[in-house]
Every structure is written in structure tokens, then in C-alpha cells.
Amino acid sequence: MKEFTDDQIEYFEKHVRPILVGKCVECHGPDAQEAGLRLDSRGGVLRGMDGHPAAVAGDPTKSVLINVVKYDGKVQMPPDGKLPP
């Protein structure tokens, strides 16, 4: 497993985890995995759906998760509205 810098961990904890917990984990967490996707662990994100990772480390343009929260394409999440910038 890749080691992360303190700055990377701090950024994730301040900016990413709150979004995942507040907007994603209810439908893609330990109690429900809609579309077979689980976002409450790094492993779940990397497993993604149907063998395709939800996020690609180091390449956000290839990360399906990034595209769906940006409302780019057919699938748009969260379903109740686009996240603020």
C-alpha cells in the first residue's frame, strides 16, 4: 500500500472524508452498496464496480468518482444535487 504524506492525509480528512460520509456512504457503505459500489474504505474505492476502480490514484481525469460528482456524463451523484465547488 502506498504511503501518504501528512499533508495528503490532512487534506483527505478535512475535504474528502466529510463528503463521502455526508453524501455517499448511506447508499455506498457498510449497510448498502448500490450498484455494487462501496465507498467507506480505500479498498472499496479501488475495487469500484464491475472491476473498474471508482478512483485512479494520481489521475483524477480517469476517476469515475470525480466525473460523477462533477455531473459530467450520464451518471450524476449525489442524486439530490450537484456538490458545491
Describe the protein in words.
There is one protein chain. 36% of the residues lie in helices and 0% in strands. The chain is mostly helical and 85 residues long. The radius of gyration is 13 Å and the shape is globular. The protein starts with 5 loop residues before the first helix and ends in a 16-residue tail after the last helix.
Summarize the model shown:
The protein is mainly alpha-helical and 85 residues long. Helix content is 36%, strand content 0%. The chain is globular and about 35 Å long.
* Total DSSP helices: 3
Shape: globular
Structural class of the helix and strand makeup? mainly alpha
What is the overall pLDDT average?
Answer: 92
Report low-confidence residues grouped into runs of 5 or more.
Answer: none
Distance, first to last CA: 30 Å
Strand content of the residues, in percent?
under 5%
Helix content: 25-40%
Major sheet summary line = none
Compressed to H and E, one letter per element, the order equals: HHH
Strand tally is 0
Keywords:
85 residues, 3 helices, 36% helix, 0% strand, globular
Helix-strand layout with pairing:
Blueprint: H1 6-24, H2 42-47, H3 64-69
